[in-house]
Design brief:
This protein is α/β, with parallel strands linked by helices. The chain contains 14 helices and 22 strands. The longest helix has 19 residues, at 29-47. It starts with 6 loop residues before the first strand and ends in a 13-residue tail after the last helix.
Length: 494
């Protein structure tokens, strides 16, 4: 038996409930028990402590309670001192390691972010941040071999981490706004929150409300692991349309939307227009720039040329890197270590990690900063010079066969060579994953990015164009180029 298939980059993810055909349960209570014991052993070795302090939390998923119990059982058996936080958010669980109380050595969050109701997972933290992929592999090896270090006499206590975390966010907004009524800086602001029935409803009731904001019209604040209203994902079109409509209906000054475990967020301006993808990066960058002129902003690879122009025009440096929130965060840390000031690492998905917040991807922290900005200036005005591509497309092409990584990379390598012989297209100078190709005005007037998925047998293909019909031109060129590739499902390009 091995738990290797449960690794998803720097997280553990799997099927925890029945209910979807063809998806058998593999994230069992036994798996969580073993992986928790592994974390306890690993953490004990790291800290050189006999009894490590570990915080445990979960999001609103239906399987969350039973998996949290399995997690607690494993840690208790091996002598950990547990702070059981119940319903919580991923960023708050990390802060359980940083706050003076409970000052934990580690934390585990039971979550699968925005994935369907039957999925669940585990995110692990220490005072250094989230565990890296290689550290997750170490935990899996410990769990597979049952090579645990047993220490008796563990103990468990309840701890409401969301209370100090909410106060932490309140203080951040108070400080940023610096209103004459210091304790109620949001008086006169109407803010609508969409929590998608995840763990983010507290932001309306426990952060914004006590600061004086009118939160009427906020929606889906109640935790519900079936996610009956829409997918709790700011990238989901239905979810974003829902919060935009709520802002317009309530004539609100600002809308905020979170994913299930609140490590991501996006916003809606006072006109009901979405502030997402390139726009959320632009807004976060303007905030990060304060006090740090000419700072570098690290983004994922699919950001638009228009965003690049915006950042450069505001005297910031734009550094694209490969997708994956841990990838952009680690790249930002690397740049800082080399003496290059980098205040923000952010993906188009809404994962935003600020240097002054431990480079933690924290959707609530971003939402708090945006809220403070909206008090001083309407979001539409802050982003008025941000241009958007005329057309945007994403196609996900499935690869058949087991060795899909080597096959997909082979396709990208061939494309990289062949593009040199295409007179109307050129490969981008800096390319950190896959290949990004620029097309001239007569042949699409835009770009194409082909890359390998981080974990799945899929070639994601992103296209942008500034000419009507240009995206189709680029898509059709790609379809023609791939016609001899027998293992790629090209039907999405039809």
């Amino acid at each position: 038996m091995t738990y290797k298939k449960l690794q998803n980059g720097s997280d553990i993810r799997g099927v925890a409930l029945e209910g979807i055909d063809g998806e058998d349960i593999n994230l069992t209570e036994q798996a969580v028990y073993d992986l928790s014991r592994a974390f306890g052993t690993w953490l004990r070795k790291k800290t050189n402590k006999e009894h490590v302090k570990v915080a445990l939390g979960r999001d609103s998923r239906l399987s969350g309670k039973k998996l949290l119990h399995a997690c607690a059982d494993g840690l208790l058996f091996d002598g950990a001192y547990i702070y059981e936080c119940g319903l919580a958010t991923t960023p708050a669980m990390f802060m359980a390691c940083m706050f003076p109380q409970p000052d934990c050595d580690g934390a585990i969050m039971i979550t699968a972010s925005h994935l369907p109701f039957n999925r669940n997972g585990m995110k692990f933290f220490t005072k250094d941040g989230g565990l890296e992929s290689f550290q997750i592999k170490e935990l899996i090896e410990l769990a597979d071999t049952q090579n645990f270090t047993h220490v008796p006499e563990g103990k468990m206590m309840k701890f409401d981490i969301m209370k100090p975390y909410s106060i932490h966010l309140q203080d951040l907004i108070r400080e940023r706004v610096n209103a004459s009524d210091y304790d109620h800086p949001l008086k006169g602001m109407h803010i609508v929150v969409d929590a998608g029935n995840g763990a983010g409803g507290y932001f309306a009731t426990d952060v914004l409300g006590p600061l004086g904001a009118d939160i009427s019209g906020s929606q889906f604040l109640e935790p519900d692991g079936m996610f009956p209203n829409h997918v709790p994902n700011p990238e989901n079109k239905e979810a974003m349309a829902s919060i935009c409509e709520a802002v317009r209906k309530n004539k609100a000054d600002l809308g905020l939307i979170f994913d299930t475990d609140v490590d991501r967020s996006s916003a809606v301006d006072e006109n009901g227009n979405p502030v997402s993808r390139n726009a959320i990066i632009a807004l976060a960058a303007l905030i990060a720039k304060k006090g740090h002129p000419n700072t570098t902003i690290v983004t994922d690879s699919v950001t638009s040329d228009e965003l690049h122009t915006f950042l450069e025009s505001h005297e910031m440096r734009h550094h694209r890197f490969k997708r994956g929130y841990k990838n952009v965060i680690n790249e930002a840390k690397r740049l800082n270590s080399e003496g290059i000031d980098c205040q923000l690492a952010i993906e188009t998905s809404g994962h935003a990690a600020f240097k002054n917040n431990f480079f933690l991807d924290d959707g609530a922290y971003l939402a708090a900063l945006i809220t403070a900005e909206a008090v001083h200036e309407k979001l539409s005005q802050k982003l008025k010079d941000l241009r958007h591509p005329l057309e945007e497309r994403e196609y996900r092409l499935h690869i058949d066969g087991d060795d899909f990584v080597s096959y997909g990379n082979g396709v990208i390598e061939r494309l990289s060579r062949d593009i040199e012989n295409v007179p109307f297209a050129t490969a981008a100078d800096s390319n950190f994953e896959g290949i990004r190709i620029n097309f001239d005005k007569e042949h699409g007037n835009g770009w194409l990015l082909v890359r390998m998925s981080l974990h799945d047998p899929i070639l994601p293909c992103n296209i942008e164009s500034n000419t009507p019909g240009g995206a189709d031109q680029i898509k059709n060129w790609l379809k023609e180029y791939l016609k001899s590739e027998k293992r790629i499902d090209k039907s999405p390009l039809d």
